[in-house]
Fold this protein.
Amino acid sequence: MKKFVVLSSLLFLVACSNEETDVESNTEEVEGTETVSIEEYEKLKEENENLEITVESLRDSIEDVNRENTELKEQVENSKGETDTAEGMDFQEESKEARAEAKESENTEDLEEVEEDDSEENTSESEEPSREEIKEEIESVLEEAGRPMEASVSQGVDGNFITLEGAARDGFSDEQIGRRVKEGMARILIAFQENDVDFEEVRISFYLPTIDAKGNEGKSNMALGVFDKETVDELNPENEFYIAESIESIALEFELDSQFQ
């Protein structure tokens, strides 16, 4: 009985001893485990803090980059606006210059046209002979035709109106003087045609020289013939004698003193 009790006590003590050993072992294991977890936690915490610092730094860098991008974008837009404005102003200036050049060119063309017209008018006017030149030409033509006459020229709307005055040639009789007047008119008209004298109407008058009792010289008109250019252009120079005989019928106006008919 005593042996059993002792044995039980021993077994109890052994069990207790084993339990304490297990407890210590477990305690050591637990304490070891807690020590490792704390170190890792501290390390992870430090890494996490470093990571948070890095993230915060990156966030600040991103904000700085975004801010710089915004400022750069504003500068680009402002620069673009200034460029567009400058281009618009340049375009307006170019348009103004183009319009000014076009207007100047148009004015130059108009001026050239006006100057050209004026030049043509002046040339035309300079090409047209003066009345004095026409007078000299006619007197020269009549001189060559053997019928010298004093000429005067008046310029009308439709052409030159020519007045010729000369002395009638003497004859053996009044009738012969009258016939010579008609022959003189015919010769003058043919000379006008042959020399292409520019006229609208010609008036040919003949006179006889007179001397009064006091010795003063004068003129006595004895014949007048008025002819137009259309009639003169239709004359046949080869039949000058027949023209003289029918001079009254082709004249616009004809007068011959009855003394010489």
The chain has two domains: 34-128, 131-260. The two ends are 218 Å apart (CA to CA). DSSP finds six helices and five strands in the chain.
